[in-house]
Amino acid sequence: MSKPPVYQNYILLPKLGVRFPDNYPDSDVQHTYARLTTRTHLDDVLAGCLTDRAVVLDMIGCSGAKLVRLSAEELPDLRAQLPGLRIIPEVFYYPQRWQQEVRSKPRPLAGQPRTGLKLVLREGRSSKPIIGATVMAFTNFDEREGEHSISDNQGVVRFRSIGNRPIEQLYIYPKVGYWTFWRQNLTLDNEAVISLVPVRLTYQDAQRFFYPPAPEDHPNGRGVKVGVIDTGSGPHPDLVLAGGTCTVTGDDPTDFADIDEHGTHVAGIIAARGVSPTGLKGICPNVDLYTYRVFGRNVRGASNFAIIKAIEQAVTDGCDLINISMGGGPTDDAIEDAISYAHDNGAVCFVATGNDGRKPVSFPASFSLSLAVGAMGRRGTFPSNTTDSPNIQPPFGTDRKNFVAAFSNIGPEVDFIAPGVGIVSTVPGGYAPLSGTSMACPMATGAAARHLSVRTDILNMPRNTARAEAIVHMLAEQVQPMGFGPTIEGTGMLFV
């Protein structure tokens, strides 16, 4: 019995770029391509042997990219009928937030006697319970042996099998309003109480250390449009959005609220407008902030189609800087063409280098027209017993309190380094510290926006390649090396 065909999504693109140019020579292929509209069955437009399951799922205008579903067996037929088009598989990219222990949960202790253990999580010295925190207890960290649990409404964490065992490493990730917790080589008594440190908005984290507020007479981002391509943004009282859209196929385009916390955190680093001591300010709160949700609900990755659709929309909305705190997928022609399209239209894309532990820079940061941003940290800007403590590793900077985050990817493609360890920013429902090259990337974007807001000569240039190059040249004048070396920090950190 033959196996049923496996259907997959593919992106159709012109031979060059993300859309047919207006002056493209008239051709049958272009006319046929224009007829491929959303929900069209390919066999209704194309001659051949395509099944009725081969369909157009989404599109970026008549002349732009098309997302289609068909089987691998049908690909030769499609190529034959649309010669000169590129057919690119749909692939996915991921937020570059550092929570490795949560993504790689402990393996149960197979075949060993089970002894339960109960912990209690409290806020500081109070009796207030910490609800919904993820707790990871490793009895053998290298072998990933241990157990994970989540605190209940009384702040109680119940383990089934790790009682009376030494704990090599303990990680606690609360949801909102608290610092994480990390300890190693400890023995936990049953019903032991662990106190978590609440986030104080007056605390000087690495963002506040390196990027203090601008003087009152500074434009502080005014006149600059910044696009954040992420999990959505807000709602949050510290964030004011100038616009946005959702580019996830099948979702409501007007629903760009955050489906996670990542995008709100990224947006807050750039442009939060809160007032101390009850709110937070971003690096350049006066920018016009646009958000583009490219992640669907209950889906880990963002499709390359959603990302290129978001980049094109950011260009249409007039964004000057575009923040992409994502990576971890394969090299992709579609995203390269979209970043090139932004560059050709006077916008610059900042991209996180990735969190793979000093491995090579991930895509799309590795693309030559991206501005790739790695992460550093500074001792004393986060509590000593948080999950960020293991990220303090050499090399250290000219100032020995500065370090390269252990998770940050490195290589010759790196353009800048920025603070990305223990960064307090906005999340739905409050404030939280997060770490990752995802946090470093908007640091650089925000610093660039602050500089660009005083350069009306560049802002007023025609939106073309020369404008994008002028932005990059301007940034080169604002960089200071931190002492880590070029394959780690590129040219250094953007100071303001």
TrEMBL record:
Keyword Hydrolase attached: yes
Matching InterPro entries: Peptidase_S8/S53_dom (IPR000209), Peptidase_S8/S53_dom_sf (IPR036852), Peptidase_S8_His-AS (IPR022398), Peptidase_S8_Ser-AS (IPR023828), Peptidase_S8_subtilisin-like (IPR050131), Peptidase_S8_subtilisin-rel (IPR015500)
PROSITE patterns: SUBTILASE (PS51892), SUBTILASE_HIS (PS00137), SUBTILASE_SER (PS00138)
Biological processes, Gene Ontology terms: proteolysis
Signal peptide: none
Keywords of the record: Hydrolase, Protease, Serine protease
Domain Peptidase S8/S53 as annotated: residue spans: 221-468
Active-site positions on this chain: 230 (charge relay system), 262 (charge relay system), 438 (charge relay system)
MF-aspect GO terms: serine-type endopeptidase activity
Family of this protein: Belongs to the peptidase S8 family.
Protein name, as recorded: Peptidase S8/S53 subtilisin kexin sedolisin
